[in-house]
Amino acid sequence: MNSATETIVIALTRGRILAETLPLLEQAGVQPLEDMACSRKLKFPTSMAGVSLLVMRGSDVPVYVENGAADMGVAGKDMLLEYGGDGLYEPLDLGIARCRLMTAMPEGASETGGRLRVATKFTRIAKRWFAEQGRQVELIRLDGALEIAPAMGLADAIVDIVDTGNTLRANGLAPAETIAEISSRVIVNKASMKIKSRPVRAILERLAAAVPAQPL
Ligand code: AMP
Predict the structure, then answer these.
(1) Rounded to the nearest whole angstrom, what is the distance from the C-alpha of residue 56 to the centroid of ligand 1?
(2) What does residue 118 show for φ and ψ, rounded to 5 degrees?
(3) Which residue has the least CA distance to atom 23 on ligand 1?
(4) Are both 109 and 171 inside the same structural domain?
(5) Which residue's CA is minimally distant from atom 11 of ligand 1?
């Protein structure tokens, strides 16, 4: 990054995705100049001149990147599917924070054939998925407290992220159908890809080289 106009802002997802993204960025030569996990700041300069990092919730990352408030971002595929649209490039799968977006029901339960009540924070994904299958559902939007919704009579099923399955099991639920395999992706603002092509492509190439070979 040797031109003052070529500043690059990268929006990162806080939490486990941040923890798995930072080592890849470091291998790509982009290291925050202070500990992002311990700071209350949201913007950090890095070891690479002109490149700064933002940290935020995953659902905010595509909003920053699509609107050009950040040039690049890292977010879970779940957040990108839920955000929708085609206003972003998604050039690189980092292969980190792997999990599945699944339906889950109480252990031993089966669908009765009536209108299923489904609790989820992924309402767009769930709406599309059930509609594709011609299944009638009532979607109940929740931001947390999902896994307890069936036991409390609020819903018949949930759509949520599953990694080990421990959270489901601890709440008497069993995984049912896989809606999508999830991992974290690099996204790029469409204008930045053109106007800042050189630095953006340089970072993408370095990141791609840092990503371990992925199992087929
Ligand atoms: P687990 O009990 O290991 O199946 O983890 C499930 C919970 O952890 C879910 O409720 C998710 O909120 C969270 N979680 C696990 N993996 C991820 C991930 N890669 N991205 C976002 N959330 C995750």
Answers:
(1) 17
(2) -120, 120
(3) 161
(4) yes
(5) 161
pLDDT at residue 163 tops 50: yes
Q: Give Cα separations from 132 to 66, 88, 127, 138 (angstroms).
A: 27, 24, 9, 15
Q: Report the atom number in ligand 1 closest to the C-alpha of 162.
A: 4
CATH number at residue 143: 3.40.190.10
Same domain? For 9 and 22 the reply is: yes
Q: What is the pTM of this model?
A: 0.93
Which residue's C-alpha comes closest to atom 6 of ligand 1?
A: 162
**Structure tokens that stand for 198 in this block:** 């050189």
Q: Which two tokens stand for residue 98?
A: 């792997």
State the pLDDT confidence band at 6, using cuts at 50, 70 and 90.
confident
Q: What is the pLDDT of residue 216?
A: 60
pLDDT of residue 4: 47
Task: Please give all residues whose beta carbon lies within 6 A of any atom in ligand 1, as ranges.
Answer: 76, 97, 99, 160-167
